[in-house]
Amino acid sequence: MFTHPVSASAGIVQWLALPLNFMVKAVSAALFGLLLLAAFVFTAPMGSQEYYGFFRYDYLLFYAVTIQICLLLLKLESWAEAKVIALFHILAMGMEIFLTHPTIASWQYPQPAVLKLLTVPLFAGFMYSAVGSFFARSLRLYAVSFEKLPHFCNMLCLAVLSYLNFMTKFFIADIRIALFVWSVVIFWKTKLYFQLKQHRLKLPMLPILLLLAFLIWIAENISTFYKIWLYPSQVDAWHMVGWGKLGSWYLLLLLSLVLVLKILGTRDVNGTWHLR
């Protein structure tokens, strides 16, 4: 006579455990970014002071490299994932060098560094790598697969044009609105499957990308508050980053996603994307 209540209670407990399981995996997937963000906060008192021949940005580079090595040695990250992150790092550094050039000056790094490339401290690429790391680790930790994913050439063209538009918009028309519309059209029917304990759940992909863009925007506000970089309007007095940056992060997420999907996954005969 007690079988049904016990079963019902067990079912409730299982469902209540799902949010905890989701959060644990999310924190693990975002480990690189969270550790980097924590370092931004704790190194703020260093300011522009020199310590043993190096500056704050240099120590952030040493720290980021150490995190990357530890993730590999502890097998929390695979070599394939590290390759994706390295590629994203290189692409990001190229964009950073262009956008921080004095003739463009979209933002600036206000503190000195020994280890830098032109105007960009070398640790900067790791901020973008953290996004690539999150995508790569999330796909594995949540056992993600995609249904009705657009053809790779379609996604690649969108990603490449999004990347180029960050730089070409200073010389020709800004096409980001067209890029947003393009992304909505091709990903409208795309569904994402992920695993939480014994449950296989499905969500539309576009809202997830928007949510991730919002979370990165929050991290950007924390970073600028602690003077990791500054936009021109923040130099005299800090204020929140404009909401328009959500669109920039959304497009950058698309670039990261396409790189991760191509390098780490494959499609089956039904067109469903899976991790290799």
Describe the structure.
By secondary structure, the protein is mainly alpha-helical. The chain is 60% helix and 9% strand. It is built from 9 helices and 7 strands. The chain has helices at residues 3-29, 31-42, 56-73, 79-99, 124-141, 152-168, 176-187, 205-225, 245-264; strands at 116-117, 120-121, 145-147, 191-196, 199-204, 265-267, 273-275. The strands form 3 sheets. It has a 3-stranded antiparallel beta sheet. A two-stranded antiparallel ribbon has the order 1-2. α4 packs antiparallel against α9 and α6 packs antiparallel against α7 (176-187). It starts with a helix and ends with a strand. The mean pLDDT is 88.
Task: List strands and helices in order, with pairings.
Elements: H1 3-29, H2 31-42, H3 56-73, H4 79-99, E1 116-117, E2 120-121, H5 124-141, E3 145-147, H6 152-168, H7 176-187, E4 191-196, E5 199-204, H8 205-225, H9 245-264, E6 265-267, E7 273-275
Antiparallel strand pairs: 1-2, 3-4, 4-5, 6-7
Helix pairs in contact: 1-5, 2-3, 2-5, 4-5, 4-9, 5-9, 6-7, 6-9, 8-9
Biggest sheet, spatial arrangement of strands: 3-4-5
- What overall geometry do the principal axes of the alpha carbons give? globular
| Helix-strand sequence | HHHHEEHEHHEEHHEE
Q: What proportion of the residues is helical, as a percent range? A: 55-70%
Annotation, overall tally of beta strands: 7
